[in-house]
Amino acid sequence: MTKTLIGQRVLRNEDARLLTGLAQFVDDVEIPGLLHAAFLRSDHAHARLVGLDVSAARQRPGVIAVFTAEDMGADWAPGPPLVSPPPTAKDVTFHSRRQVPLVKDKIRHAGEALAVVIAENRYIAEDAVEDILVDLEPLEAVVDLEDAMRPDSPRVHDDLESNLAAHLFQKKGDYDAARQQADLVLRRRILIDRGAAAAMENRGIVADWDEKSQHLTIWDTTQAPIPIRNGTAARLGLSENQVRVIAPFIGGGFGPKMMMFYPEELVIPWAAKKLKRPIKWIEDRRENFYATTQERGQVHDVEIALSKDGRILGLKDIFLHDTGAYDPYGLTIPLNTQCHALGGYDIQNFTTEVSVVFTNKTLVTPVRGAGRPQGIFVIERMLDAAARELGLDPVEIRRRNLIPPTAFPYEHGIIDQAFAPLILDSGNYWPVMEKALEMIGYATFVRDEQPRLRKAGKHVGIGIAPFVESTGVGPYEGARVTVEASGKVFVATGVGTQGQGHFTTFAQVVAEQLGVEVSDVRLVSGDTAEFHWGTGTFASRGAVVAGNAIHAAASIVRRKVLELASKHLETPEDELELEGGRVRVADIPNRSISLAELANLANPLRGAVEPGTEPGLEATAYFGPRYGATAFGVHAMIIEIDPETMMIEIKRYVTVEDCGTVLNPLILEGQIHGGVSLGIGNAYYEKLHYDENGQLLNASFADYLIPSATEMPRIEVGHMETRSPLNELGTKGVGEAGTIPVPALFAQAIENALADRQLEILESPLSPNRLYELTSRKEAG
Amino acid sequence: MAITESTMPKLFDLALTVNGTLREQAVEPRLLLSDFLRHDLGLTGTHVACEHGVCGACTVLLDGEPVRSCLIFAVQAHGHSVTTVEGLGAVDRLHPVQEAFRQAHGVQCGFCTPGILTSVVPFLADHPDPSEEEIREALSGNLCRCTGYQHIVDAVKLAAQAMKAANEQPAR
Predict the structure, then answer these.
(1) Checking DSSP bridges between strand A47-53 and strand A459-471, what pairing results, if any?
(2) Is the pLDDT of residue A87 over 90?
(3) Are A53 and A132 in contact (CB under 8 A)?
(4) With contact defined as beta carbons under 8 Å apart, do A109 and A45 qualify?
(5) C-alpha distances in Å from residue A378, one per residue of A191, A217, A317, A339, A558
(6) Which CATH class for the A15-21+474-623 domain?
């Protein structure tokens, strides 16, 4: 094989179109006769819907239709469950309550859709929304997690006995026995609140029902077009072949654009089919804050038991998890939290119990990180507290507990988000930590610089936080690779793409096998007409699961190419090489044949195809991992805090990640940078403020502050590679690695910088205001 | 009542230059410039992400100055000249700033990118040799959720160098 393409900083195939404004996003779809939708949404978080008067709206010129739940008749049904239900076992309770297309009787969160107006343009549709009269009976809102669990709390779902949505107990070893042996037992209560994914592109959907061909085409800002196609066909009583779902260029996903079956995804295709007209709905930013899913709200009561030399003997974590008004996404997030509360540490005794709670707030589904940042925050906070108590360096206590390289695969003895045993497949953790320490200059900073700067009155601090990231979960993805008659290669796969560079990294994987230029590999992802088996892009699984399916398909095509070329060139296969779009005889470079010629030979216009063979140079293959590959990483940061304003200046920011084989370091670094920016938002700028009525108080980019270029530091990225044994490419996912440890890192660095205040941070997100409150309270009390 | 108001919207005869071409069309006074560009002219490279002037995704050049097209009515651009991302360069002939974004991987999902390009082009005209701090300050009016801005900052530096080198080439 020629010079390897895997691991090269290849420039992206998709950029030219994105840079010139030609890339098609959902709102760019135009169809003759296109109608536009706007939704009437509830101003109240909790209320009984008494009636809707849509008569004035229907009369407004330019309005084509107005639909309420009643108008949907027998077609009205809640969305489907989005993940498999948890296994029935004595330790699991799960009450499935899914989102509804339009509210029928009870409003369960502010922003829930009550009616939809379809009009000739969006301006008229929004005017008509204002014409609708709403009669409702407000109810007391369920907002606070702990209050929600009190027996006298109002109930989000009247048919349940309480606001408990699910309960899950897991244990390994014997925590109580470990506690008996402990020299130190620490107990803490840790609060984590919600943030938004805030992709720059809001959601949107266009549905076009063609009455003549009886075919529905949907353009959807979804990370998972295939499940949306299958579910839509089932709901509308159509064959799956009558529905095509296209996820074109998507302006950022970050979780909430998964196969959600949002109310709009339930209503717009239905309305398009009913009216026999194409309809477009594009979410506005305010709707995005109210109606697009969010994450992270949890309350943890944690206890850690240690020996006096800092070894973790056991951990106990009892927590509440906020699922919002409905729970279509099952237990994915709290299971991730449970698994990541163990960090990358060798912990033999663990008890964990989660109560998932319904509240009158926007639905909760995974947001980049998906329960993992909360778990890491919990364990890292406890280790920092323990290090202080035991007089140990924060790095040393971690070194003593990290899983040693000889212990892999490391079986934890609890189940993960896929209800499979939690197994960490591979890793070599301590060298990653050492590299981060070296890059940030930990020893010098702690020994020389920090004392010197502190003497000069500066509040400088350092933090270092390791983390694991479960990635690349099943069930499977697939791909089809074809050498076309031009000699160029076409690849189709089912996962959607939201900026991860799939058009390039996947092309590298194919080009590596077939000896073509990366720019000669054209990829279609996220169009069910091209490939219709698979699930989607989430859980940092694209490069692992789809990447390996593409690798498998390309490898089969390579074999077909060599077999045919061998016959044609009358040379054994092992003497052939693929390079520059041609197959050559290794020692006789002028004896060669192009892929284009081979593609034509494989698909002749006359003559006979040998029995048992298939035409063309094409293969379809699938990859399903036995279980997810677990990546590891360490973030380190030096900060200076202005004690007057509590503004933080990040002086240095270092990440070292081990995600197995790196396909493209340039793209990987971009993933890390972006992940860290969401993490910094989560840690210090972004919090969704709900009031006691369940009203979101900061539902705009003027009030909800996501990091801009002036808040972001320059990030220094280091790599280590421990190949995953679970797949051919040896890859592990990296999509969420940038985000996961950041809140834990901030808490540690802030405590270190404000060492003179003896502050202990037990909450996230923080903000300059909140930090000021915490330090003032400490001084006062 | 609102119904009668919207039944007979008075149309305004709008004439403006977009990417060098004169465009004339009767529009409602309330039509936003962003909607006019995207949906009436089909120039969908201009993206709308917050609809209230914070995120910068919809930035276009009005007589060469960056403005938020979501905060301007189309009629306010009457008689003016508008440049959108489509007017900067083409796939086979990228503007030096676009080329630098490709080289430095300054694009991920690409949704905020057009507004960043239309902000950076006039910035570099005024600051041909910017410091990293100046670049970050200039970018602070554009939100990006994918990149953490680092490769965007690198791209702006690279564009400045490339444009400077091109200007310093002796004319032939």
Answers:
(1) unpaired
(2) no
(3) yes
(4) yes
(5) 9, 45, 9, 11, 48
(6) alpha beta
Which of A12, A498, A709 is the closest to B136 by Cβ?
A709
Q: How confident is the model at residue A155 (pLDDT cuts 50, 70, 90)?
A: very high
- The closest CB to that of A61, out of B7, B135, B151, belongs to B7
Rounded CA-CA distance A495/A540 in Å is 12
Tokens of A272: 């398009």
Q: Reply yes or no on whether the pLDDT at A432 is more than 50.
A: yes
Q: B12-87 has which CATH code?
A: 3.10.20.30
> What is the C-alpha separation between A678 and A367, in angstroms, rounded?
10
Q: Percent of chain B at pLDDT above 90? A: 90
Interface test with A, best of B28, B32, B108, B131 (most A CBs within 10 A): B108
- pTM (2 decimals)? 0.96
**Centroid of chain to Cα B22:** 18
Q: Cα separation of A80 and A328, whole Å?
A: 7
- Write down the architecture of domain B96-167 according to CATH: Orthogonal Bundle (1.10)
Residue of A698, A697, A692 whose CA lies nearest to A140: A692
Chain B interface disruption, residue of A13, A18, A680, most B CBs within 10 A? A18
Strand order in the sheet with A648-658: A459-471, A629-641, A648-658, A715-720
- Cβ contacts of residue A618 below 8 Å, gap of 6+? A480, A481, A482, A483, A557, A560
Amino acid in the structure at residue A428: N
| Domain ranges within chain B, ordered by starting residue | 12-87, 96-167
Q: Residues B29-79: pLDDT tens digits?
A: 999 999 999 999 999 999 999 999 999 999 999 999 999 999 999 999 999
